[in-house]
Amino acid sequence: MPDLALLITMVLAGDHPLTGPPPAQVLDPVPHADLVRASVAGIPGLLDDLDGDTRNVVLTFARIWTTLATGEIRSKDAAAKWALAQLPPERRRVLEHAKELYLSCRYSEESWSDELKAQVRPHVDEVLAEIDRLS
Fold first, then answer.
1. Residue whose C-alpha is closest to residue 56's, from 95, 28, 30
2. Rounded to an integer, what distance in angstroms lies between the CA atom of residue 82 and that of residue 93?
3. Which of 59, 79, 89, 113 has fewest C-beta within 10 Å?
4. pLDDT at 109
5. Given this model, what pLDDT does residue 127 score?
6. Whole-structure pTM value
7. Sign of dihedral through CA atoms 68, 135, 58, 126?
8. Contacts by 28-33 with C-beta closer than 8 Å and gap 24+?
9. Would you list the DSSP string of the chain?
10. Is 110 exposed, middle or buried (0-12, 13-18, 19+ CB in 10 A)?
């Protein structure tokens, strides 16, 4: 269950129990290598979903990149904000659009112009190169 390392890291970051002691009193921190492994485990499946769920896949890649670079697991919009500051200007439009769709909750109206759709794979390749470098 690779996601377990991510979930435990998020629980420890919040450290707010529903009941009982705070999570940090009962859970050990996730080793960095496990966090990296868990973060990249889903990349092949995400790539399979790129055409059908572009917005979520692009935002998830931003989250993976942010997690590997900072050690923090951030929300999709916070990860996108961080990643946009790291990307060269010519690679930002795809992530800006995905973030806008996410924040506007226009999931059923997700639309990508042909021009923007053509930029998705180069954007993803750039982000995956950064993820690969960090992992």
1. 95
2. 14
3. 89
4. 64
5. 97
6. 0.86
7. positive
8. 30/5, 32/71
9. -THHHHHHHHHHHH---SSSS-HHHH-PPPPHHHHHHHHHHTHHHHHHHTTTSHHHHHHHHHHHHHHHHHS----HHHHHHHHHHHS-GGGHHHHHHHHHHHHHT-STT----HHHHHHHHHHHHHHHHHHHHH-
10. middle
Q: How far apart are CA 123 and CA 94, in angstroms?
A: 7
Of how many residues is the chain composed?
A: 135
| Residue 83: CB atoms within 10 Å | 25
